[in-house]
Amino acid sequence: MQSADFIIVGGGAAGIFCAVNMARLHPDRRVLVLEKSGKLLSKVRISGGGRCNVTHACFDIDELSRRYPRGGTFVKKTFHQFGPADTVQWFAERGVKLKTEEDGRMFPVSNSSQTIIDCLMQEVNRYRVTIEMNADVKDLKYVNDHFELISATGRSWQAPAVCIACGGFPKLSQFDWLAATGHAIEPPVPSLFTFNMPGHSITKLMGLSVEQARVRIAGSKLESTGPLLITHWGLSGPAILRLSAWAARELHDRQYNFSITVNWLPAHHEESLRTLFQQYRQQIPAQKVSNRNQLGLPHRLWEYLVQESHISPERRWADLSSKEQNQLIRNCCHHTFDIKGKTTFKDEFVTAGGIRLSEVDHRTLMSRKVPGLYFAGEILDVDGITGGYNFQHAWTSGMIVAKS
Q: Could you tell me the end-to-end alpha-carbon distance of the chain, in angstroms, rounded to an integer?
């Protein structure tokens, strides 16, 4: 049985960040990382289209905590110990500068996730962190003042303290080995996914994006405003992904069969559009409705909305009937779609659920039930919307465990 002073289960963002900072802050301790696969930092590599969305330029902790559908109160406390500004500084001190894009997302100046991976692996080598690959831990026991970890193949390790940073699991049964320690598990459900509309005519506009749209889930108060992308399977983009995060549990309960309404022009409401269209009828009566679009919508989408309103492509503003105008207004402000199913957003899946937060001390991230057992990253019932928030939780929780 191999031994170490501190064992971290999981070689992702939270696990590696915890390991390198633990080894840096406590150079006398032997730090061992157990990774179940043959790859380290796999989510870091694919995040942000291969650029790695390291964090978000939201430095007000109260505001930042509101970007987490689950765990907002918890991270509001942890971010005071290590927040986005600390993340920016940590990487800058190691030669990696981050840049802020218009929407607040922060990436390495190199635009390559490999820069972040190289930085972390340099720290692994500098502080002599031991990593074992293909070490799939399936059992955890506390015996005679130390933990014993056992893999699926029977390999075993022991240490007086352990951090679980293996990410989320899609199935509740995969948490059994952690539930056996006495911890309650919030059931896992997917978050950050796109909405499927198989066979819907709007999918013919695939690739078209709208800068601002408001999406609301019918029968609820849940809504999101932001860029929206039409794909060959349905709707995606930040507005959809954020909404999927906030509604993760409700949509799971509905088995991903639900309706949404889209306001393609969130700066307008029905009455303001009605006034605007009346002006068009007076000022440009001879122009075709399908040709007139000063509302900032992509022209193909405007043509589609006109067609969906059963308005002839040759119809002039002067000849537009009240019925046609009302239908066009409804399609602009309350376009209804039936959603049937979801698709994981690229490979950037996030799971809502995990270790119940009331059973973890936010100051140290140590279990309130098992002394010496720590948690970091997505294994906790914390998840953020898209935009670098989940990585920030990974860095924060990894650092707090290392300091603890």
A: 26
* Residue at token pair 């207004």: 329
Question: Amino acid identity, residue 283?
Answer: Q
Mean residue pLDDT of the chain comes to 95
Query: Are the CB atoms for 264 and 332 separated by under 8 Å?
Result: yes
Does 175 lie in the same domain as 213? no
Give the C-alpha distances (Å, rounded to integers) separating 380 from 53, 87, 247, 279, 374. Answer: 20, 20, 18, 55, 10
Confidence (pLDDT) at 347: 52
Residue 78, amino acid: T
| 116 and 19 fall within a common domain | yes
| Statement to judge: residues 123 and 238 lie in one domain | no
The values of phi and psi at residue 37, to 5°, are: -100, -170
CA dihedral 232, 238, 240, 244 (to 10 degrees): 120
Q: What is the CATH number of the domain that holds 206?
A: 2.40.30
Q: What is the pLDDT of residue 292?
A: 67
- Which candidate, 186, 145, 182, places its Cα nearest to that of 378? 186
Residue that is last in its domain, among 286, 315, 336 = 336
Q: In this structure, what token pair is assigned to residue 152?
A: 């699926």
Q: For 302-354, write each residue's pLDDT tens digit.
A: 999 999 999 999 999 999 999 999 999 999 999 999 999 998 765 556 889 99
CA atoms within 13 A on the CB side of 309: 28
Give burial (CB, 10 Å; 0-12/13-18/19+) of 390: buried
Domain that holds residue 107: 2-189+349-403
Q: Torsions phi, psi of 345, nearest 5?
A: -75, 105
**Closest C-alpha to 348, from 387, 376, 392, 397:** 387
Domain CATH number, residue 184: 3.50.50.60
Predicted TM-score (pTM) of the model is 0.90
Q: How far is CA 117 from CA 84, 269, 384, in A?
A: 18, 47, 22
| Helix (H) or strand (E) segment spanning residue 343 | strand 342-344
Write b or e for each residue in 243-270: b if 16 or more Cβ atoms lie within 10 A of its Cβ, otherwise e: bbbbbbbebbeeebebebbbbbbbebee
